[in-house]
Amino acid sequence: MEKLEQTVPGGRVAGRYDARFKTVADRFAANFAELDELGASVCVTLNGETVVDLWGGRVVPDAPAAWNADTVSIVFSSTKGATALCAHILADRGQLDLDAPVAEYWPEFARKGKEKATVRMMLDHSVGVPVLRDPLAKGAVNDWDLMCERLADETPFWEPGLRHGYHALTFGWTVGELVRRVSGKSLGTFFRDEVAKPLSLDFWIGTPELIESRVSPIIQFKPAKGAPLSPLAELALADRSSIPALFLFNDGGFNPNRRDCHASEIGAANGITNARGLAGMYAPLACGGTARGIKLVSPESVARMGQVSMASHLDETLRVPTRFSLGFMKSMDNRARGNFGNMVLSERAFGHVGAGGSIGFADPGCGLSFGYTMNKMGDGLLLNERGQGLVDAAYRCLGFTSAAGGVWI
């Protein structure tokens, strides 16, 4: 492993990398010099072994505090990958039937038009409750029972299973409550006991107070004046009763920089970790379900995780074409539409992007797992140039030659 110590604008980057992955290290440093990165980390594993582990920059713009090896940050929707994995672990053990009616596990949910909802629909964003219609009080997202009650009482926006729309915040409870009811543990506790502890991950859904001093604050993205709006933003501003508007404006007081938000278990949005945690979680999945002697799921479950379950030309929330497996995102190429909904991976890969550009994924086709986290959010609905550039570099280091067809080959 090569050692990296390099000065970049505003700070330093450090860590280690396998010489085969020098392009990833070069791209990581270039993000600070060329793409206004503030603080970030990137980690890559190959066949279960770490080949890139880098970090650097600062935790806030106007102070010298460095992003260190143990700095963590909120990873927004990259959390969904962890929540989905919990459900798949239970399914792999025969405790959760993915094709069963939700009513078997959560009877209160199966009403008001959701009677025929299945577990599979909860995972692939087709169950029909991507948002809540009635206003959420400030702090509501920190109340697990309240959010589950509200979702159970919600009339779906479409008949479950017929369409799909990204369940940006509600996924945390639609899937998380199934995990809680089946396992008898809260989502965060189950993830800690069954994933984070066995794999020695610094990854939390419901972050303890003692971790708080290592959490980097998030800096919101500020679009340039006159920048084009995403299709989601256009509809949200035009129709305040639309799904995009309710997604953006009825968030129950979610604040990524508040301690109460960090302490809560919000399985769609408030996981706190770094690139090492994301890549480490996906490492077993890149290796058929087992890495370094730790088995999470069977090879059959990994195959199931990678299969497209729902896709369309118009996601009811994001308003662009999207593709989902059961709880994970698949490669999405909307580059012809600008930076509105891009995450270009190989066809075998599956994972999840977080708001602002974080990402974690597994690629069982080449034994690759990948994680990238940052504290300064970028533009776009999914990945932006910083994260996608690192993903592209990792694929090139493995001999992939083109992504012109919408996936890396």
Q: How does this structure look, described?
A:
It is a single chain. The chain has 409 residues and is α+β, with helices and mostly antiparallel strands. It is built from twelve helices and 14 strands. It has a seven-stranded antiparallel beta sheet, with helices on both faces. The chain has a three-stranded mixed beta sheet with strand order 6-5-7. Strands 8-9 form a two-stranded antiparallel sheet. Helix 1 runs antiparallel to helix 12 (385-397), helix 2 runs parallel beside helix 5 (171-183) and helix 7 (231-238) packs across helix 8 (243-249). The longest helix is centred in the first third of the chain and has 14 residues, at 79-92. The protein starts with a strand and ends in a 12-residue tail after the last helix.
CATH architecture grouping: 3-Layer(aba) Sandwich
Residues in helix, %: 25-40%
Assign the CATH superfamily. DD-peptidase/beta-lactamase superfamily
Following the backbone from N to C, one meets helices and strands in this order, namely EEHEEEHHHHHEHHHEHEEHEEEEEH
Compute the separation of the termini in Å.
27 Å
How do the strands line up in the largest sheet? 1-2-4-3-14-13-12
Tally of discrete structural domains: 1
Secondary structural class:
alpha+beta
Could you give the topology of this structure?
Layout: E1 2-8, E2 11-17, H1 22-34, E3 39-46, E4 49-57, E5 72-74, H2 79-92, H3 119-123, H4 144-152, H5 171-183, H6 187-199, E6 215-216, H7 231-238, H8 243-249, H9 259-263, E7 272-273, H10 275-286, E8 290-291, E9 294-295, H11 299-305, E10 310-312, E11 322-324, E12 350-353, E13 359-363, E14 368-374, H12 385-397
Parallel strand pairs: 5-6
Antiparallel strand pairs: 1-2, 2-4, 3-4, 3-14, 5-7, 8-9, 10-11, 12-13, 13-14
Helix pairs in contact: 1-12, 2-5, 7-8
